[in-house]
Amino acid sequence: MAVSDVYLAAGTHVNAVATEADGAILANAWLLIALPLAGAVILLLGGRRTNGWGHWLATALPLAGFAWAALALVQLLGMEPAERSISVPVYTWFSVGGFDVAVDLLLDPLSISFVLLITGVGSLIHIYSVGYMEHDENRRRFFAYLNLFVAAMLVLVLADNFVLLFLGWEGVGLASYLLIGFWQHKPSAAVAAKKAFLVNRVGDIGLLIAIMLMFSTFGTVAFSGVFGAVEQGGQGTMTAIGLLLLLGACGKSAQLPLQSWLLDAMEGPTPVSALIHAATMVTAGVYLIVRSGPIFEAAPAAQLTVAIVGAVTLLAGAVIGCAKDDIKKALAGSTMSQIGYMTLAAGLGPVGYAAAIAHLITHGFFKAGLFLGAGSVMHGMNDEVDMRKYGALRTAMPITFATFGLGYLAIIGFPFLSGWWTKEGIIEAAFATEGLTGQLLGSAALLGAGLTAFYMTRMMVMTFFGEKRWDDGVRPHESPTSMTAPMIVLAVGSVFLGGILVFGYRFAAFLEPAIGAPEEPHAFSLAAMLTSGPSLAALGLMVVGAAAAWFMYGRAPVPREAPAGNVITVAARNELYGNAINEGLLMRPGQVLTKALVVIDTKVVDGLVNGVAASVRNSSEGLRTAQTGFARTYALTMLFGAAIVVATLAVRI
Amino acid sequence: MITETSSVPAAVLSAPTITEQAPHIDYWLLSPLLVVFGAAVLGVLFEALVPQARRRALQLGLALAATAAAFVLTVLQGGSIPAGEAGTTLALGSVAVDRVALFLQGTILVLAFISLLLIAENRRGESAFAAQAATVPGSEEERSHILAGSQHTEVYPLVLFAVLGMQLFTAANDFLTMFIALEVMSLPLYLLCGLARRRRLFSQEAAVKYFLLGAFSSAFFLFGIALVYGYAGSVNFARVSEAIDAGGASLFEDGSGEPLLLIGIALIGVGLLFKVGAVPFHNWKPDVYQGAPTPITALMASCTLVAAFGALLRVFYTAFGASVDQWRPMLWTVAILTMVLAAVVAVTQRDIKRLLAYSSVVHAGFMLTAVVAASPEGLAGAMFYLAAYGFTTIGAFAIVTLVRTHENGPEAGELAQWAGLGRTSPLLAGSLALFLLAFAGIPLTSGFIGKFAVFEAAMAAGATPLVVVGVLSSAVTAFFYVRIIVLMFFSEPAETGPTVIRAGGLTGSAIAVGVAATFLLGVFPSPVLDNLVPQPSEEAAEPAVATADGFTR
């Protein structure tokens, strides 16, 4: 058959040859996805019968997935590094003629890292939600959606081709939409869900067009096939594919210019913000860029754009974080900013990939911990989110304070905590880039470090220190164990995980078969990390930022009503006019375009389409009259038909 | 002419020799048919001997047991065919027992089993069938029968006879057996069509129409058989095929027999195309599907279509396989007419049963593209399509039986009444939406795989224009399927909205099987599809396998 084979199955991968899975653990990796998916199905179809135990089932399944993934990791570590790319055939959808459509999973160091993050942090957040959502009458539905999200996210990271990845991509988008709008009774939640959905559509279309472009260029959408053929793609095509992938990544990861939905997404329940809008889903864009490394290698212009987008977003997010009084929105700004770091690193090429993923993993821990802490505070404060009405909570909520504090130290890059190790890696990689670009990107990263220290200290101080500014009748109390236990685990990760990963570049070496190695690798040196110029500068800026926040919010009383503020503050409060810019740049011209299109549509296209439709309809009406209901007419038609049949055969005589 | 008879070579006249010795028949291989036949006869005896109160349960149990047993026997025989062989023929070569026949028979039996569940559905003593069909509609006598709770339990043996005919229709290996199978299949159906409980005159009209037109088409079929017999000197498919290779019976050594053959092919084609309902032999379908009791419509739309296509495939692949170049343009024409005209007419249908009838016509057109391919892949595609479509269409008609104008009212056929059904009965509307998406050929439903398989086969056989027409026609059909989904889910319920009566266990399981099959054959088609498509590796290893396409010759 003329149509080329849609060969989705994996053959080879970037550097390593994909080996066939053997052993029950690896060969059945599809269970990782099937378990949470089964949970979602059982809870959604089971109805009220599952109310009593549904949430425990939903919690146990990702936990089982985590155990499975841990076993798989052990097996992977037992193999030669070059063989750690495992192709797991799941099933052949159908094969007709020369047309084979198969679904295969790819287990390699990169995907297993994500699987562990998603199932690990995911399980903790499930446990937390058992307490957090205890009084919500729709708790079962909430857990069903959470399971659905975990399953979709695992499809995204385990896919071995872009089409399957896109399926997961849309799946997490759907779960995110459902969970942001989970409290549908709040109009703001419904609007936020809709906004997230629409903004993500823009990014998704970019990804979709990129996939189509790949298929038309390479005749395949498998990672192995595409990455193996980037040389033949041509500079222009590769740049186009790279930029379109970046557009997709921007949508999912809330990078400029598609960042506006993330702050609104905080309308969702806090565990959702922690899992989806901080630890996992929003990092999918970074995953996409790192995974598509070979494409960006072949398109330097697109790669540079990635780094620039990351740098701009990391600053914009930090500035927004500085001005927001809503604790969750301030954290959301911080998430934007931290993902900006990762995007920046991912835009540096192989030298930054490991740093980006390492930061992504540690960020997953400390940001999830911070969100859960924020949720715990809200839980104790009657769902108040305005930090101006907090204050002096450290005695009322000691465990929350301690875990939040450790997350805080990690994110601002306090030496030897997780965030420090991984952020240093990014700053170092940025400065290692040649020329002015490297200097500018590195400076942005440094400036970001100072701003991070400022807004996080501000949050810490306004929430846990200073005077009580509580509303009347608010009696803050520590949250139940089911909530604090996950926070403690995450806090432990916030402290130690970075060191474990970065020390000796262990994690980078582990990832190497999947993402490639930098051209000039240099040995790990703790002394250099501590004494290099950028490192000292980062430390200095951190101290300055934290001190400034202390002076502004710790020493002086915090007014319960936000003061008018200067131009920058107002701009930051308004999310740097992101919405207005969207409105002005996209929505208004979009509306004008729509109006113009409507005119063209009604006059030209509709004329055509309606013409076709009308002619179909008219001929339909006409033909209907042939169906008279009289047997004699039918018999005549048959005779007529027989004449046609005889005639078409008789012409052969 | 008569005087010339003596000049006919003796060999021709003596070909079917009559001997005193009875032919050997392998009853084990015939057992699936015999079980159904025996049960049908037993059912007639029950009608005569068993008191009325116990008849329904007994008849239903017998019918279900017979179809289930026949299915098991069919599967066993499928397993006993040695690998690499197509199968065998029996009863002097009149019945083929090969993979194709067994697959289609198995499909027919499963679909018949599900249809029987619908037929048996009995709500407060009220089934889909007339209390006493012999009474004048609206008469006092009719009313007394309704009040007395009379039931026509003859329905079950009739269905079994029809199923027997269908089984034989797909397996018949000579034209006379095929004709008998055709009549055994059709006669009970004519009768069953006239038994609707509501709108009885309408139902009777449909039955008479079906009978008249069916008889008309049978005449074509029979005349075609006579001509082909004249040409080939035999009605056996293998002999006909050999005769075509040899240029006709020894009478026609000068090649003058071809008109006989071609007109014979044409007339036999008319008879078969009538049964599958291809344009322009489709007029009966909307009227009959609408008029017949809906469970019977489900039986016809699934089982009869499978049987008719089974026969069509066998005739054109084996008997006329050698003259594929002659008949291909004819089937091209019919396929295009069918796909285009039926899709266009369906657009303005306002009754769900008529719409499904036209949809069935369009699907027949899609399957004809696979027949045109005349390749093993085409055969496999058509077989998969038939199975997939059968399950989906039964499910769709099962849903039609549940949507009523009011409680205890007649079925709400008017599509306008279905507005907003998705809000009041999301599960039911969701199932129907799945069936409609399968009809439209949306991925992850069985309909997609089926369409892909037949279109791929047609493309491979060089019938690209046909596939283009098919795809365009799919787009038109998708329009009216999606319109129903939109109507159900996005329209405000009408003031006189439909009442959905609770699905009884029987109807419910029919719908559930339909949903499961539609979904599973769409997501995991491989176990079925891979067994149908001849594996190229095997063929290469054993070039001597009976026939490339899986038919017995």
Give an overview of the whole structure.
The complex is a heterodimer of chains A (653) and B (553). Chain A is 71% helix and 3% strand. Chain A has helices at 24-27, 30-46, 54-77, 109-132, 139-158, 162-180, 187-218, 223-228, 235-253, 260-264, 270-279, 284-291, 293-297, 300-323, 327-346, 350-380, 398-412, 418-432, 435-464, 481-502, 506-515, 526-531, 533-555, 567-573, 578-624, 631-650, and strands spanning 19-20, 86-96, 99-107. With 653 residues, chain A is mostly helical. Chain A is globular. Helix content of chain B is 69%, strand content 2%. Chain B has a two-stranded antiparallel sheet with strand order 1-2. In chain B, strands 3-4 form a two-stranded antiparallel sheet. In chain B, 59% of the residues are buried. With 553 residues, chain B is mainly alpha-helical. In chain B, strand 1 (87-90) and strand 2 form a beta hairpin.
